[in-house]
Amino acid sequence: MIKNEENNLPGLLRSIDGVIEEIIAIDHESTDRSVEILTRAGATVIKMSDKAKQYSDSTSSFKNSSTTKPKPGEWADNERTILNDHASGEWILHIDADERLNEELRRQLPKLAQQNDYDVIWFFSRHFYAPGKWFKHGFYAPHREPRFYKKSCKINWNVRIHESPQIQGRYLYSDLSYDHLYYTAGEERIKQKHEIYLCVEREQKKEYLYQNPILSWSFIILGYLVYFFYGVFFKLAFLDGWVGITTNHFLSQYFARAGYLEIALKKKFGLIKYNPMLTKD
User: Fold this and answer.
1) What is the percentage of the chain residues whose pLDDT exceeds 70?
2) CA dihedral in degrees (108, 111, 116, 121; nearest 10)?
C-alpha cells in the first residue's frame, strides 16, 4: 500500500527483481511519480479512490462480520484482503515500500516457495537507522513477523494500522530477515506518519479511553514513564547508544499517546473487553 513513495520504490523494486513474479499495489491518491514507477515495473496498481467505490465484502476471499466496506480517502480496514484477492500466485510476500529483501533472503525465498511443510513463514524485521546499522535492542530490536504465506490460508487483516495478520496454517519461524528503512526517512517524515497513525489509533480506541482531560493526560504521562524506562533498561535500548535512547523516547511518546497503557490496565482489571481486531466481545 503506497502514497507518495517515489523515493522508496526504486530500491524496493531492485531488491525484489528476479525473485517476485507479480507485483500488486494499492495507491492512496499519490501526487508524485509512485504510480508511474510501479507501472513501468509491470505492477498492477489499484487506485483506492476508484476501487473503494466498487469493492464489496461479499466478493472477498476472506469475510467476517467486522469487515467494513472502505470509503474513498479513508483508511480502509480490508486493503490487504483486496491485495490478496488480486494475487494470482500461490505464495504471497507482504512487503512495504520502505522495506528491502537482503541477498540471503533473495536466495532463500524461491526455495521456501517450493517446500510443502509450511504455509506461513515468519521473518525477522531489522529496523535500520543508518546505512549498515540497525537497532539491536529496545522496542525495535529485530522481531519476527509473518510475511510469506499461501494465498489459500485464512487471513484476517482487519486492523487499521501496524497490521499483524491472523493466519490459519502451518507456521515456520525462520531466522531469515528483511530490512526496514523506516528510521532512515528523516525526522520530519517520521513525525508526519506518526501523527497520522496516532489519529487512527485514538479514533479506533476512543470508546475505551477516558475523555476527561485530567485522566487522559495522567495515563499519557504515566504511560510515557513506564514505556521509556522499560525500553531503556529492560529492553536494553541504551546498548544502542544515544540513537537507541532517543528512539526509545520517541516511541514511548507514541505508545503513551496511543493509549496502550490505559487499554492494558483497563483490560487487566476487567474494566473493558477490548479486541484489537475491531470486534466487540
Assistant:
1) 83
2) 20
159 or 169, which is more confident? Answer: 169
Give CA 264 to chain center in angstroms. 21
Which of residues 143, 163, 183 is at a domain's end? 183
Confidence of residue 157 (pLDDT cuts 50, 70, 90): low
The domain containing residue 83 runs over which residues? 9-183
Domain check: are 57 and 81 in the same one?
Answer: yes
**38-76 tens-digit pLDDT:** 999 999 999 876 554 454 333 333 233 233 333 433 444
What is d(CA 209, CA 262) in angstroms, rounded to the nearest whole number? 7
Q: Specify whether the CB–CB gap between 27 and 3 falls below 8 A.
A: yes
Task: Look up the pTM and report it.
Answer: 0.80
Q: Which long-range contacts link 172-175 to residues 24+ away (Cβ below 8 Å)?
A: 172/112, 172/117, 172/118, 172/120, 172/121, 172/122, 173/122, 173/144, 174/112, 174/121, 174/122, 174/123, 174/124, 174/144, 175/124
The length of the chain, given as a count of residues = 281
Which of 160, 183, 206 is the last residue in one of the domains?
Answer: 183
